[in-house]
Each structure stands twice: as structure tokens, then as C-alpha cells.
Amino acid sequence: MAAGAAVPGLFFAFAAMVLLIFASVSSPTWERISFLNAPTGGTTTHFGVFGYTGSDTHVGWFFPGALGDSRINDHLFHNLTFVLILIPIAAGLSGLAVLFGLCGAAYHRAGSVFMTLLTALAFLVTLVVWVIEMVLFGIARNHMRDRGINATWGNANWLVLGALVSLFLGFFASLCGVFGRYSRRRATY
């Protein structure tokens, strides 16, 4: 292996990519992963990146009638649901970091440099989207609880947080990997 120092950054970038992919396929695609869970009647509505339980899969959505009202269905909250598309974008950036990390670990220092830059960019995008989704779903959760609906946090919030931490660690690990050894010592005769 050309650069063993690039491997820890590669591992953290890969872990972040997997976590962000799981968060991206949240409800309505995969009901077990959601950002917010709200019981209505006898069922529970799960909210995800591309909609909620029973909705079509699309970018940008309004809260359903039984759970949302004019306060959380205004244009500000609707526009914030568009920003959730940054989660799959961060997953893609992490995937590119993994590809460059493979090049850096197997071949050349330039791959590790690009992995470092893409990991930093993915970290910034993930940080922005994590703050926005926590604010969005936190306000919606509190508003629903004020109306007597026992809304709870979903597991996708913590998946995105785990990816954020992994990208943070991956950035510094890949930064150290840039300064690793990339050539074999020549045998002196």
C-alpha cells in the first residue's frame, strides 16, 4: 500500500457516506428512518428528507393537515424542507471523498489532498443541514407538543450527527494522511 496514513481518513469518510445515505432514504422511502415521529389517530407519521408517511417522494413539502397548521405550514418552513436536499448532496460529496481516498491510499498523494478538501466541504454542508433540520423539526416538534400531539425525535437526526462527527474526524485524519509516506525506501547497496 502506498500510503497507510490515508486509510483512517478513508474509513471516516466511508462511515459518513453510509450514515448520510441511510438518512437520505428516510421516510417516505424507508419508514424505519425518520427525523420526526408524530402519532395521529392510530398511526404514526414519520417525516423524512423527501416527505412523510403516505406522501409522494419529492423535494419540499408541507406538514400534513392533521399535524400542521398555518404557523408551521408557512413559506419559511416549506422552504426549509427544500434545504433537506443537502443531506444526499453531502452523501455524494462523502462518496467522492472516498473515491479520492482510495486513489490516495493506493497510488498518489493528490488523492489524499482531494479527499481532505472534499471531506472538509462535506463537513460544512453536513453542519449546515444538521443545524437547519434540527431547527426545522425542533420547532415543528414543540409546536405539535403545544397542541397535544406527542411528537418525538426520529433516528435520522442522530445519523446525520454521527456523519458530522465522522467527517470532522475524517478531515483531520486525511489531513494527517496528506503528510504520510508515499514512496518506498530504496534499498541501498
Order of helices and strands: HEEEHHHEH
**Termini gap:** 24 Å
Q: Strand sequence of the main sheet, in spatial order?
A: 3-2-1-4
Instruction: Specify Rg, calculated over alpha carbons.
Output: 20 Å
Structure description:
The chain is an alpha+beta fold and 189 residues long. Helices cover 58% and strands 8% of the residues. It is built from five helices and four strands, in the order H-E-E-E-H-H-H-E-H. The chain has a four-stranded antiparallel beta sheet with strand order 3-2-1-4, with helices on one face. A hairpin with a 2-residue loop joins strand 1 and strand 2 (43-48).
What descriptors fit this protein?
189 residues, elongated, single chain, 8% strand, four-stranded antiparallel sheet, 5 helices, alpha+beta
Quick synopsis:
The protein has helices at 7-24, 75-83, 86-106, 109-146, 156-178; strands at 36-40, 43-48, 51-52, 152-153.
Task: Lay out the secondary structure.
Layout: H1 7-24, E1 36-40, E2 43-48, E3 51-52, H2 75-83, H3 86-106, H4 109-146, E4 152-153, H5 156-178
Antiparallel strand pairs: 1-2, 1-4, 2-3
Helix pairs in contact: 1-3, 1-5, 2-4, 3-4, 3-5, 4-5
